[in-house]
Write a structure and sequence with these properties.
Structural class: alpha/beta
CATH class of the largest domain: Alpha Beta
CATH superfamily of the largest domain: Glycogen Phosphorylase B
Largest sheet: 9 strands, mixed
CATH topology of the largest domain: Rossmann fold
Number of domains: 2
Radius of gyration: 21 Å
Low-confidence stretches: 1-23
CATH architecture of the largest domain: 3-Layer(aba) Sandwich
Number of helices: 17
Distance between the termini: 32 Å
Number of strands: 15
Length: 431
């Protein structure tokens, strides 16, 4: 997709002007993250909503004021408790919530609690007349609130689990209080029990959810998806905007893009860059934002690493330029992140024909996708020495990078095409 096409799509947001004529089917989506958030759950749920709307469904979304990954409400959405808008035919109902740029356990609880309470009127509006409600987790209290309202309204419910909570928070050390863990686990059990159907991203996540519900037969694996045309590779020898804007000629570009959170193990990049600081032809590019950005930049300054650059999140049209234009794209996860999440950035990078190096546990969902595709290199999680060695090997031409890129792209197009994954769901809901 060209820059102008993306810009036209982003401008297709207009104020609500009366009730639209009802099409054959109505879908409610209750999610704490949505457009214009550019990464993570907000991006993938928006892609799902757009697809359903393009299929002719009446899509209504109850969500937050956009805040992610900066953990700060976007300036143009501040100062109001509720807001309505329409984006590409999707009616969006937003509510205010407390949020802080440096989230802690206490502020995360306050964030979810305030959002869950203030979103209730919007959830009721979104659910009115709906044939099905898609309720998105990991925001457990938000999901539980939406689930209870949907059940009271008699609407069929599908729970979409993007991260398995509270497992993810516990295993990454973000949630340690035994009472809070017990409460969160009870909430998860309740949401799983009430859902008519559960969608999650991978087999490991499915097993986790099955432990907390008596009816494991209602769990389906529905992966995140890609638009093959949008992510068509733009090689370095073509007109690649990323290399033209950021990468000096003769430089091997190592890229990490997207959310800068704890799960991404950004310290791995700093340690590898330290090992390679005396090799001037290798440069690291960290493009993104998130809760760990300030700490990462402070460590970068403290270590004096001149071979690492940070840049803000780029426009969506730049994504295929970055992923296919970089010589290496790093997908990194902490050792604790085994089967609690499947990173959407991995699927996106595969679709763009990136040369992927995945630093992840051997038994993780990420590692399984790398093995199944044959389209990348896996190294142990947090192993900066292994990362530095792979970078050196690519620099000296020791890997068949073109073949790895080709396999990744073909695998993603065959397995994660948006139409193939979502169209049966749209048909089912309008039958």
């Amino acid at each position: 997709m060209s820059a102008s096409a993306v810009e036209r799509a982003e401008r297709a947001t207009v104020p609500v002007e009366g009730e639209p004529r009802r099409p054959p089917g109505r879908v409610a989506i209750l999610t704490s993250n949505f457009w214009p958030e550019p990464t993570g759950t907000g991006q993938t749920v928006t892609e799902f909503a757009r697809f359903l709307a393009d299929e002719g469904l009446d899509v209504r979304v109850a969500t937050s004021m956009p805040y992610y990954p900066e953990w700060n409400i976007h300036p143009e959405y501040r100062g109001r408790l509720w807001r309505r808008e329409v984006h590409r035919g999707i009616r969006i109902l937003r509510s205010w919530h407390l949020v802080r740029p440096d989230p802690t356990t206490v502020t995360r609880i306050a964030h979810e609690g305030s959002l869950s309470a203030l979103a209730i009127p919007n959830m009721v509006r979104a659910l009115r007349g709906a044939d099905v409600a898609y309720i998105v987790s990991p925001a457990l209290s938000f999901a539980l609130t939406g689930m209870l309202i949907a059940k009271a309204a008699g609407v069929r419910t599908v729970l979409i689990v993007k991260d398995v909570m509270p497992d993810a928070a516990v295993e990454m050390g973000m949630l340690t209080n035994p009472a809070l863990i017990a409460i969160s686990t009870r909430m998860a059990r309740t949401v799983y029990r009430l859902a008519d159907e559960i969608h999650t991203l991978g087999e490991g996540m499915r097993r986790r959810i099955a432990r907390l519900t008596a009816d494991s037969g209602k769990i389906r694996i529905v992966p995140d998806t890609i638009d093959a045309e949008e992510l068509a590779p733009i090689r370095a020898d073509d007109t690649n905007a990323f290399r033209e804007a950021f990468v000096p000629e003769g430089t091997l570009a190592v890229l990490h893009s997207g959310n800068m959170g704890r799960k991404q193990d950004l310290d791995l990049i700093l340690r590898a860059a330290d090992l390679l600081r005396d090799e001037p032809g290798i440069r690291f590019y960290v493009v993104g934002d998130g809760a760990e950005k300030d700490r990462f930049l402070a460590c970068l300054r403290e270590q004096g690493l001149e071979n690492v650059e940070h840049h803000p999140l780029q426009p969506r049209w730049m994504l295929p330029h970055m992923l296919s234009g970089a010589d290496i794209v790093i997908v990194s996860q902490l050792p604790e992140v085994v089967d609690i999440v499947v990173p959407s950035k991995l699927i996106t990078a595969m679709a763009a024909g990136a040369m992927i190096v995945a630093a992840c546990p051997e038994d993780s969902e990420t590692a399984e996708l790398i093995r199944a595709s044959g389209g990348g290199v896996r190294i142990p999680a947090s192993d900066h020495e292994a990362l530095a060695e792979v970078i050196r090997e690519v620099a000296r031409g020791g890997l068949e990078t073109l073949e790895l890129r080709r396999r990744a792209r073909e695998f993603a197009v065959a397995r994660f095409d948006r139409g193939a994954v979502y169209r049966p769901m749209a048909r089912l809901r309008t039958a």
